[in-house]
Amino acid sequence: MQFLWSLLGRRESGIAVGHGRLFALLALAAFVGAAALACEAEDSGPGSLTVYSGRSESLVAPIIEQFADATGIEVNVRYAGTAAIAATLLEEGDNSPADVFFAQDPGGLGAVEDRLDQLPQSVLGLAPEWARSPDGRWVGTSGRARTMVYNTETLTEPDLPDDIRDLTDPKWKGRIGWAPTNGSFQAMVTAMRSRWGEDATREWLEGMQANEPTVYPKNTPQVAAAAAGEIDIGLVNHYYLHRFLTEEGDSFTARNYHPRGGGPGALVMVAGAGILSTSENKENAQRFIEFMLSLAAQQYFASQTYEYPLVEGVNTQRGLTPIQEINNPLVTPREMADLEGTQALLREVGITP
């Protein structure tokens, strides 16, 4: 380029470069500049992406790796609980390096919704209406149902309560497990607050405390404890049981029960993702979300994590209760947004520190 500009300033035999030659040289300079930019873009490759994941690494790392392999995009992932990730995003504000928030429930996404970009209809339309933000700022990627996992040697389905409210009956004292710091449990309580009201939810939490539930850090040990007879009922997401059934077979002595009466105890939630408005890699972020709703990724969620797919044409796990048979209360994503209020209530009642 320096050589071209030197030509433009040259004089031959005391005569300035002619207009025709000037235009030719300018055209050549433009061509060389465009070629240099193209080479630079090619050298930079497909770029990178930073994902803040409230979904656990064991569940989603393999499908994120598939996305990276398929696209060549360098994906950096930060893992933590959904509530913790949401708090981090709010604290980082405009300085956050995150491009995508991949959350395990609508509550976490709703907590940071103001920091998410509007998604195009081409992306939103990939999921059913119930599984996406009413404002179009995030979209569901898979479905997860709350359930009671129970010991099949001590209980049968007719023995189980129609509604999760009934677990406060003193007959269940010392027989229940829960994980109150778990994001999905807190999402369920958020749904309770929306449907039952603050006072009734507080009463349920206090009634459960009086029944001395065994506290677990997460869902998996509750399922193992139910099968071992350490508890009779655990409050978990449906898919944890199916991992055990896959590994140990039908002789595994625990099963899922979705309350007949519906309500928050039969809540079907969505895991979902949104693009941060401050993202510098929005094209790659959109490709990530589109991939999570592709047939390949949806089949992964159905067959490897035992979740409910959100697109048609995907085979679900054997023994999985069809989603249409669950008495889902259909709590809207907006109703699930006040995660902070739920955490404050749990602290106030003395359930979480």
The biggest beta sheet is recorded as: 9 strands, mixed
Number of helices: 13
The succession of helices and strands, N to C, reads HEEHEHEHEHHEEHHEHEHEEHHH
Report the mean per-residue pLDDT as an integer.
88
Computed CA radius of gyration, to the nearest angstrom: 27 Å
Q: What structural category arises from helix and sheet content?
A: alpha/beta
What level of helicity do the residues show? 40-55%
How many strands in all?
11
Flag low-confidence runs.
Answer: 1-42
Shape summary = globular
Task: Give the distance, in angstroms, between the N- and C-terminal Cα atoms.
Answer: 65 Å
Percent strand: 15-25%
What report would you give on this structure?
This protein is α/β, with parallel strands linked by helices. The chain is built from 13 helices and 11 strands. Strand 3 (48-53), helix 3 and strand 4 form a beta-alpha-beta unit. Helix 7 (183-196) crosses helix 8 (198-210) and helix 7 packs across helix 13. The longest helix is centred in the first third of the chain and has 26 residues, at 19-44. Residues 1-42 have low confidence and may be disordered.
